[in-house]
Design a protein that fits this description.
This protein is of the alpha/beta class. It contains 14 helices and 14 strands. The strands form 4 sheets. Strands 1-2-3-4-5-7-11-12 form an 8-stranded parallel β-barrel, surrounded by 5 helices. The protein has a two-stranded parallel sheet with strand order 6-8. Strands 9-10 form a two-stranded antiparallel sheet.
Length: 467
């Protein structure tokens, strides 16, 4: 792999505020939609009452322990750390005129700590959360006024951190709103397609407004989108399977098309028309959408297959999406199919489509780790998974794809998004906490910690082609 990764490649890891910070009401923080999903994004929406608790309320206590964790990331040699700002730490209800200074000050301290080690922040403005106040009083992203509230929030953090943060993302896995509308756009799960696509439209306009604000306030900065990279293959070479695969891939590529090209593609106009979907789009909206992102970022965990006759097959659930399993691939403990070559394929698909730099901001293996009697954690399965995916990233770079960096998902164990589990571990760093919330929160280096340190220090030269 020597020489395939660019000299200034941004190696690192990725976390999300609602999955690591805890301190869910500390220093004036308001309730977020994530706080009302104590069992994860597939769980019930549960109003908070006095004295109740959920595992994300403490998570791994990154809010108080971040200096220790940043030091561990630095020990691995991180060039970049992706995290998110909790919107409710800055505007607790979402519609305030004045931001919460205590929340702003926390991220000042966090970014200053990262700067001590030369770690670049990559900051997501909204990662699977929004102020519940905006849902309760306005109907979430279903209300056009939420665009202005988000723009105020974005401009506030751009102004505050313009000398500390160069890389920004707007919405995490923006396409997931089609599958989990409460998490994505603050709408009830039973919302119809017109309501969901109208809320998505408001979010796309807000994303474009944030891009414009970033370009004005942080002229040296770069701002991208973030897609759930759910690449699909046809199950067979039947023309009907190919056409259905194209249609389903467009379901999520549509978001990138709007954010990278600046307009709604013709195929979506037909989709809206044939499905009776009404979306109010103003001329001002169309002008706003022309403000396009600087780069494409995405998550990649698995691929899947598509057939025009899906009732004949069982499906496998991945991160949000249901897919027909590929008979040629193995699966993880959670049923996610392992497809390293799919990452190379996806990188080429996105680069061919957009001709913009790409950033892999989530990729990792959730597994049940075992702590040995001597305290060691020998996670060779994680090393093999990440090694094989990174070998394919190197191949894509050799194909001519411009890749900015790679931030593995969950460099430290965290609360999983899907079901709020600690037992589904991704990290190079073990955190002593279980699904019931018991444990000391002690940090411990896994075998993969040292492996990833060597990968970064060698700029990928230590990777092994195991094909």
């Amino acid at each position: 792999m020597n020489g395939k990764f660019p000299q200034h490649f941004l190696w690192g890891g990725a976390v999300a505020a609602n999955q690591v910070e805890g301190a869910y009401q500390a220093d004036g923080k308001g309730l977020s939609t994530s706080d009302l999903q104590p069992q994860g994004i597939f769980g019930a929406i549960t109003p908070r009452t006095a004295g109740d608790s959920g595992i994300k309320d403490v998570a791994i206590d990154f809010y108080h322990r971040y200096p220790e964790d940043i030091a561990l990331f630095a020990e691995m040699g991180f060039k970049c750390l992706r995290t998110s700002i909790a919107w409710t730490r800055i505007f607790p209800q979402g519609d305030e005129e004045t931001p919460n200074e205590a929340g702003l000050a926390f991220y000042d301290r966090l970014f200053d700590e990262m700067a001590k080690y030369g770690i670049q922040p990559l900051i997501t403005l909204s990662h699977y959360e929004m102020p519940y106040g905006l849902v309760k009083h306005y109907g979430g992203w279903g209300d056009r006024r939420t665009i202005d509230f988000f723009e105020r929030y974005a401009r506030t953090v751009f102004e505050r951190y313009k000398h500390k943060v160069k890389y920004w993302l707007t919405f995490n896995e923006i396409n997931m709103s089609l599958h989990a509308p409460f998490t994505g756009v603050g709408l009830p799960p039973e919302s119809d397609k017109s309501a969901i696509y109208q809320a998505i439209h408001h979010q796309l306009v807000a994303s474009a407004k944030a891009v414009k604000a970033c370009h004005e306030i942080v002229p040296e900065g770069k701002i991208g989108n973030m897609l759930l990279g759910g690449i699909l293959y046809p199950l067979s070479c039947k023309p009907e399977d190919l056409l259905e695969t194209q249609r389903q891939n467009r379901d999520w590529l549509f978001f990138g098309d709007v954010q990278a090209r600046g307009y709604y593609p013709a195929y979506m106009q037909r989709f809206f028309r044939e499905n009776g979907i009404q979306v109010a789009i103003t001329e001002e909206d169309r002008r706003t959408l022309r403000e396009t992102i600087d780069f494409i970022s995405f998550s990649y965990y698995m691929s899947g297959c598509v057939t025009a006759d899906p009732e004949q097959y069982e499906t496998a659930r991945g991160n949000i999406l249901d897919m027909v399993p590929n008979p040629h691939l193995a699966s993880s403990e959670w049923g996610w199919q392992i497809d390293p070559i799919g990452l190379r394929y996806l990188l080429n698909v996105l680069y061919d489509r957009y001709q913009k730099p790409l950033f892999i901001v989530e990729n990792g293996l959730g597994a049940k780790d075992r702590v040995e009697a001597d305290g060691s954690i020998n996670d060779d399965y994680r090393i093999n998974y990440l090694n094989d995916h990174l070998v394919q990233v190197a191949e894509a770079i050799d194909d001519g794809v411009e890749v900015m960096g790679y931030t593995s998902w969950g460099p430290i164990d965290l609360v999983s998004a899907s079901k709020a589990e600690m037992s589904k571990r991704y990290g190079f760093i073990h955190v002593d906490r279980d699904d019931a919330g018991n444990g000391s929160l002690e940090r411990r280096r896994k075998k993969s910690f040292y492996w990833y340190r060597d990968v970064i220090h060698s700029n990928g030269a230590s990777l092994k082609d195991r094909r």
